[in-house]
């Protein structure tokens, strides 16, 4: 050994990890112009898909998917959204494009859906209670209309094996400076995997990315669910933990859902779990309560593990790991 570390180039991103579509792409731009027919348009965001509002009459949204999304997946989601129109849960209605359900553009699938004007509810206790009531209704509606023919989406942390792969990839991508946070990732992954072996969790159709922003309010006070791209059959607690883990500080409230909160009123997780169970098909099981802190820790752990995939750095990975460890440190309280 010379004591000199030989530097190696970071591994390339996987071929399936294609970027979000860009309006600057000539093929994408041509499709937007063809749909708009002279009307104005605007990129209205979306982390994974390009969502373009076309300001025609009526307003529509052109959605261009990431490269990994298959035709069967998009078509299946369209059929699911059509079936959900018959339930109490509101979702955007799919619209045909040039006489077809889908069109191909720049190695991606594109579709149209109705644009529904909405506002994001404020981050208040009442909004979060309503959010979890709506989640229970969504789970009930998905269960009622689900058909097993819908292809699964890309899911890069369904298993602990996938999580370990992501951690290793991030270590290689970010280099030696990431080693301390990688050790923390591997330790927590081991602890979570041991607990997961001891619980049996019910599987059900879930949203996959449920939070304020994907559940929004209409002018009549009703709510609509957006972005069903990650709908799939998985542990239903995944939706619950995902929504809980993303809750930020409420104005004037230090919540038990935020490990860094120090003062103010106390918003118990039980309040939101009760709201979910009021509308859900079944109450949470004892094993779901036992796994809740693990499910909560797994969300930021995933973001830490995939830092090398999404272009984040060591600092972002460390911040996510701090959140994961904070949830896990409160496992006795959260699982009671």
Automatic annotation (TrEMBL):
<dbReference type="Pfam" id="PF01636">
    <property type="entry name" value="APH"/>
</dbReference>
<dbReference type="InterPro" id="IPR002575">
    <property type="entry name" value="Aminoglycoside_PTrfase"/>
</dbReference>
<protein>
    <recommendedName>
        <fullName>Aminoglycoside phosphotransferase domain-containing protein</fullName>
    </recommendedName>
</protein>
<feature type="domain" description="Aminoglycoside phosphotransferase">
    <location>
        <begin position="51"/>
        <end position="248"/>
    </location>
</feature>
<dbReference type="InterPro" id="IPR011009">
    <property type="entry name" value="Kinase-like_dom_sf"/>
</dbReference>
